[in-house]
Amino acid sequence: MKSLVTLLLLLPFYVFSQNMDNEKLETIYATVSDSIKGNPGAWQFFIKELPIMSITDANHNRMRIMSPIADSNSLSNDLIKSALVANFHTALDVKYAVSDGILWSVFIHPLKELSEAQVKDAVSQVYYANINFGTTFASTSLTFPSNISEKEEEKIDEIPKFKKL
């Protein structure tokens, strides 16, 4: 009886596991992008001239989809604060993050558990979080209630541009 209960509890995890891998990712990226280059586990692709990168570590079951937005050193404190608030309200599954002096829109997730629909949605959210930075900061049309006043939104200065790779 105990074995049957254990089997019933674990069965949904086996049935719904996705087994995403680099080969499937590359196929998905090729279908959603205008152009793609790279090797399994490290790609750069473009959507409407916006650079997007993806890296994976299959051994540790991790992956990232990311797009450079701006030189992080050129951002005002108000703009950085707005990005942090957006991480809670409007960026949803992607986040604004800084690494090596660059502000990124980034989606980070376990690799194997992803479905094709989740990957496509993640690419879309990374794209929209990038192009909406400094305005709505939204990765989708869905937002959670925000406490930012209109006065605070008016303080956001012009967005520094990032050179294309």
Explained architecture:
The protein has 165 residues and is α+β, with helices and mostly antiparallel strands. The protein has helices spanning 2-15, 22-32, 77-89, 116-131, 150-154, and strands at residues 35-39, 42-47, 50-57, 62-71, 95-99, 102-110. The longest helix is centred in the last third of the chain and has 16 residues, at 116-131. 28% of the residues are buried. It is globular, with a radius of gyration of 18 Å.
Primary descriptors:
165 residues; alpha+beta; 6-stranded antiparallel beta sheet; 6 strands
Shape: globular
Classify the helix fraction into a percent range: 25-40%
Order of helices and strands: HHEEEEHEEHH
- How much strand content do the residues show? 25-35%
Quick structural overview:
The protein is an alpha+beta fold. 36% of the residues lie in helices and 26% in strands.
What is the topological layout?
Layout: H1 2-15, H2 22-32, E1 35-39, E2 42-47, E3 50-57, E4 62-71, H3 77-89, E5 95-99, E6 102-110, H4 116-131, H5 150-154
Antiparallel strand pairs: 1-2, 2-3, 3-4, 4-6, 5-6
Helix pairs in contact: 2-4
